[in-house]
Amino acid sequence: MSAPTDTDVVAVVTGLAAAAQKASRGLATLTTAQKDAVLLAAAAAIDAAADVILAANAEDVDRAEAAGTEAALIDRLRLTPERIGGITGGLRQVAALPDPVGQVVSGKTLPNGLDLRQIRVPLGVVGFVYEARPNVTVDGFGIAFKSGNAVLLRGSSSAASSNAALVDVLRGVLSDNAVSADAVALLPSESRDSVTALIQARGLVDVVIPRGGAGLISAVVRDATVPTIETGTGNCHVYVHADADIDIATRIVLNAKTRRPSVCNTVESVLVDKAIAADALAPLTSALQAQGVVIHGDEPGMEPATEEDWHREYLSLDIAVKVVDGLDEAIDHIDTYGTGHTEAIITRSLQAAQEFTARVDAAAVMVNASTAFTDGEQFGFGAEIGISTQKLHARGPMGLTELTSTKWLVWGDGQVRPA
Amino acid sequence: MSAPTDTDVVAVVTGLAAAAQKASRGLATLTTAQKDAVLLAAAAAIDAAADVILAANAEDVDRAEAAGTEAALIDRLRLTPERIGGITGGLRQVAALPDPVGQVVSGKTLPNGLDLRQIRVPLGVVGFVYEARPNVTVDGFGIAFKSGNAVLLRGSSSAASSNAALVDVLRGVLSDNAVSADAVALLPSESRDSVTALIQARGLVDVVIPRGGAGLISAVVRDATVPTIETGTGNCHVYVHADADIDIATRIVLNAKTRRPSVCNTVESVLVDKAIAADALAPLTSALQAQGVVIHGDEPGMEPATEEDWHREYLSLDIAVKVVDGLDEAIDHIDTYGTGHTEAIITRSLQAAQEFTARVDAAAVMVNASTAFTDGEQFGFGAEIGISTQKLHARGPMGLTELTSTKWLVWGDGQVRPA
């Protein structure tokens, strides 16, 4: 099959978006029980179709292997019966979560008798742009559907067969449950054109959430005319304050760097206060080096650091270490190089902790805790669609509530507004 | 003075934005008492500088008159001692409002002992783009400052002298109160280039809110790389249901159209149910015509309507009237032509009211009430910076809270995340 031309892709994406918008109107009035029944039916249908899904996934994996894709990426792409169990378990978990739609956020009766309520409603049509892992296809559907939204999924071309098989099952379940199948659709993934068409489908798509590398996210933000939510760029810091407990500092930095180096809440730079550097640097660096972490910095025995290192989101067993002259320099450094994800201070000083948490501007600011805790599951959301690093609409881990908007209901008995 | 070149304007705007961002860091940690003191001092300083401000305003008015500007626009531009009193009264009112910054939105202690709090914080740097009225300059500063934000003001060139005089006073007050004067700045208004520079100052500006005509708003949304909030496009409908009280319908339509035809919550189309049209049309149209309203529609005695009329936001003593065949057609019409601002049903049927409010997707959905009630002051916000017609971040009237974001504070005593 040859790749469609730009115009073809735009027409396809716009058509799917218009159908999704129409479908979204029906979703908004489904009851929680109706939505949960669909989610459980989807889990059962995916379990039942495991063979078909695994066969489709094998096509993706074969193609990736033939193309010489690196083993780590192929592992992310690969489905197994166990991973399918994880996917359907996720759907059942979302079914069990509280439904944000219909929650009354605020309300009052005005002096003229008008009854005012602000209630949660779905956003409408949500677009997800994401990479490799096929489980995101089902997770994205589950979270969007539970919060009453239609969803347009733009996965990576490497997972095209797996995603198509999964979305086929989901659309079938919707039809079987008297819900428009257009509430979920997979966009073409042959080229970036479908991303461009999605982020410019103004009036049809209510928000696009890109999950992926910095390149994808900045391209989406630059070219989008529909609102977007930036996710997951994390140049996170741990500041080891003059009054830090060095054992705690070492344990936290080690955990925040080595637990899963490739995720966005990993610490990338450690700022060590000059006042404690003589005591803290040796245990900290030797603990990191013992775990195979390469240390970039200006101190003896480190890889010489350049300006670039303070900006780097390594996402690997690398870390930058800088000695700073007090809290002000630490905060200046974070203001300059941080991405507003997660910033932590290690200290026994209440005053330092209060000042750090008040002055540092990030989605999560931590005291004596590992940056690895910035995570929807850890925060108790039950499901996470990404971690917002912007300030508008949602900041930090996003769950079901972050996929809703509100509307004002105003009930009266004939009130008019005086001149 | 010749208009600066593009590059000059970009440099000026970027410089002011960078200074505002620096200033915003200090604003975030001001106490409510400190902010209120500045707001009250600003009110006093504007009162004291009334002569200077009126003289500057006279320059703007003279220039507008010399250019043959229409009287209504000149009236919007003109300041009087009374209007200056209104401006400073507004500042005092904002000082008296509760401060959203620091509010705890949610929180809990996790099983591992981590203490989690989600608190309100300022957005950071807010840009306002607006037209003619110089009072918006001070209102915008007041609301932004109370919510802890630095603000970049891009008013219209017709009010350039008035705005410059007002912002001079505000910057002086900030300096006198040991707050960075860069927390408020007036952008050049000679050309649209400064708007473009503002909406593309990514990394420096956190949100831009355009207030103005549809042309301005769509240009901002199209070219922006910083997040924006769409405001104020209101193609609002009143649906007169089969079971409506005709007196109430007439009173509400009349109020919603004639109270202030030029504002965004004005009703622009009336949908009359076929089942009640024979009884309702005559009193409705004669009441409107008695107030000088021109009726566009397909019925006898109306100006013939075209497709364009259903889209029109007249903002004048014009209204479109359409006979619809039941609730479904009314909602379809609203889905097709509405702008998501305010939609109302007039009915005595609980079932119709429930269905209309559940299915119609707009910032405000009303039952037996005038669309004119969609307004921050009416909703009890105390101050309003615009009415959002988008679903992300804020929907409907925006007050102080809508100019905030949140951050997560996580306090621990050495917790690390298990593998």
TrEMBL record, chains A, B:
Keywords: Amino-acid biosynthesis, Cytoplasm, NADP, Oxidoreductase, Proline biosynthesis. Pathway: Amino-acid biosynthesis; L-proline biosynthesis; L-glutamate 5-semialdehyde from L-glutamate: step 2/2. Pfam families: Aldedh. Its EC number is 1.2.1.41. It is found in: Cytoplasm. Catalyzes the NADPH-dependent reduction of L-glutamate 5-phosphate into L-glutamate 5-semialdehyde and phosphate. The product spontaneously undergoes cyclization to form 1-pyrroline-5-carboxylate. This is Gamma-glutamyl phosphate reductase. It comes from Gordonia liuliyuniae. The lineage of its organism: Bacteria, Bacillati, Actinomycetota, Actinomycetes, Mycobacteriales. The gene is proA.
